[in-house]
Design a protein that fits this description.
Elements: E1 3-11, E2 20-27, E3 30-36, H1 37-51, H2 69-88, H3 96-110, E4 116-123, E5 128-134, H4 139-149, H5 154-157, E6 161-167, E7 173-178, H6 185-190, E8 197-202
Parallel strand pairs: 4-8
Antiparallel strand pairs: 1-2, 2-3, 4-5, 6-7, 6-8
């Protein structure tokens, strides 16, 4: 999974609050979430508390005054390197602190309320199953729901994963990527706003 922050945007605060800079985090070239510097600083401080300062990559420091466009660009580059380094670290990148931060940010960015929904999942034999999940369910939760629907034994679940695919005009599918622990499958597939994208269960 490739993390990048290719762009920033100026956004208005809630209820007419002051404007702020949002950093758009992309995963494999697709927008995953928009976050503020203060949110990423909070993530950094939580990781430092749990794992110690020596484990963490450098984080761009706070500034007392508003940033110039050049400083915003510099911070964007530094935050991008930070997110890439954290994700690539076996300990930090797999931590629940990091993954839950990204799941919350994804749900907030797409403004999806937590509610029960029916999610269609394709099987490798072309059949479809509908599972009742929460919009806030992470990948592992959805995988377990599909396995339960299929009466798949617990000891076999680990051999399967959920994948995002795109349906071609001829009815075949192209592989997009494996769904990860830092995302919400329902939000990931619906945020693409195209019926071409599906979730499939496969080994």
């Amino acid at each position: 999974m490739h993390f990048s922050i290719p762009e920033t945007e100026s956004r208005s605060g809630d209820s007419g609050g002051s404007a702020y800079v949002a950093y758009n985090i992309h995963v494999n070239g697709v927008l995953h979430c928009r976050v503020r510097y203060s949110q990423l600083l909070g993530l950094h401080e939580q990781l430092r508390k749990e794992y110690g300062a020596n484990v963490l990559p450098a984080f761009p420091p706070k500034k007392l005054f508003s940033l110039t466009p050049a400083e915003v660009e510099q911070r964007r580059e530094q935050l991008e390197k930070y997110m890439q380094a954290v994700r690539q670290d076996p300990l930090l990148g797999s931590s629940e602190t990091f993954n839950s931060f990204l799941r919350r940010a994804q749900q907030e960015t797409q403004q999806v309320p937590t509610e029960e929904v029916s999610l269609e999942v394709l099987l490798s034999n072309g059949q479809k199953v509908l599972v009742n999940v929460l919009t806030s369910d992470q990948t592992e939760d959805v995988l377990e729901a599909v396995a339960a629907k299929l009466d798949l034994p617990d000891d076999l679940i680990g051999y399967f994963s959920l994948f995002l695919v795109r349906e071609r005009e001829d009815g075949t599918f192209s592989f997009v990527r494996k769904l990860q622990e830092f995302e919400l499958p329902y939000v990931s597939v619906t945020s693409l706003r195209s019926q071409e994208y599906k979730i499939v269960l496969r080994k």
